[in-house]
Amino acid sequence: MAEDPAMAGDPVLRLSEAGKGFNGVTVLDGVSLEVPQGQFVALVGPSGAGKSTLLRLVNGMHVPDSGTVRTLGENPAACSRRRLRALRARVGFVFQQFGLVGRLSALENVLMGALATLRLPRYGVMSYPHALRVRAVEHLDRVGMADRRFQRCDTLSGGQQQRVAVARTLLQSPELILADEPVASLDPAASMVVLETLERISAEDGISVVCSLHQIEFALAVADRVVALRGGRLVLDEPAAGLSAERLRGIYGTAGARDD
Ligand SMILES: Nc1ncnc2c1ncn2[C@@H]1O[C@H](COP(=O)(O)OP(=O)(O)OP(=O)(O)O)[C@@H](O)[C@H]1O
């Protein structure tokens, strides 16, 4: 049975000296991080700093070489496949490229977020239970997309597609949302709409969000806390309030994945 992080008094997420390398090259180097329930964490740092790798350790897509990762009270690296599936159902993942099926409507894409909990494959909106359809429309409403629910996703703008992807994630009732550069392909206005949507959901529902971002200004505008990686090491971990853009820019310095 899954441990309840609230009952155990655990943070939603805890990395202790987590390390990961590929082909003999260290990508994450002894990273320790705790995220409490309901916090919006922006993960920043130069390209190659290890942000995606950290997010993948959290949902068990990668296994750490050293240290430990605990996600919602579970150790993903030690989970059986069944238990890992159950853990991933509690963790929403929002990708840069949305991951929607373009020829299907916004509503059907959101409904697909519940496929893991349904026994049989589904074809068409009406094949999903009524209560689920109602919830899917409610989530589309929360992200401002209810009026577009019957529109094919490949005819929506990038920002609209990402909001549909957030609604799909919400249908999972996630306790933690991991977002890997969710606005990398969007213009500034659309980016802010997506990030403010995530921020509002985090605040209203008490869902922790860990969101990798390249835009420092966005990180400061929406996050409770900013965590910066450089060369696989955690080099800054502070509340967003009071943190200056100049200081954060200093993390980027001369571009490069590692200091050494
Ligand atoms: N599966 C893998 N096999 C080999 N190398 C990998 C693998 N995944 C990541 N890496 C390497 O690890 C380093 C960190 O990659 P990662 O994607 O975590 O960085 P990032 O901070 O998310 O970068 P970006 O901001 O460009 O997305 C990079 O040098 C990358 O090439």
From TrEMBL:
<dbReference type="InterPro" id="IPR050086">
    <property type="entry name" value="MetN_ABC_transporter-like"/>
</dbReference>
<keyword id="KW-0813">Transport</keyword>
<dbReference type="InterPro" id="IPR017871">
    <property type="entry name" value="ABC_transporter-like_CS"/>
</dbReference>
<dbReference type="InterPro" id="IPR003593">
    <property type="entry name" value="AAA+_ATPase"/>
</dbReference>
<keyword id="KW-0472">Membrane</keyword>
<dbReference type="InterPro" id="IPR027417">
    <property type="entry name" value="P-loop_NTPase"/>
</dbReference>
<keyword id="KW-1003">Cell membrane</keyword>
<keyword id="KW-0547">Nucleotide-binding</keyword>
<feature type="domain" description="ABC transporter">
    <location>
        <begin position="13"/>
        <end position="256"/>
    </location>
</feature>
<keyword id="KW-0067">ATP-binding</keyword>
<dbReference type="Pfam" id="PF00005">
    <property type="entry name" value="ABC_tran"/>
</dbReference>
<dbReference type="InterPro" id="IPR003439">
    <property type="entry name" value="ABC_transporter-like_ATP-bd"/>
</dbReference>
<dbReference type="GO" id="GO:0005524">
    <property type="term" value="F:ATP binding"/>
</dbReference>
<dbReference type="InterPro" id="IPR012693">
    <property type="entry name" value="ABC_transpr_PhnC"/>
</dbReference>
<protein>
    <submittedName>
        <fullName>Phosphonate ABC transporter ATP-binding protein</fullName>
    </submittedName>
</protein>
<keyword id="KW-1278">Translocase</keyword>
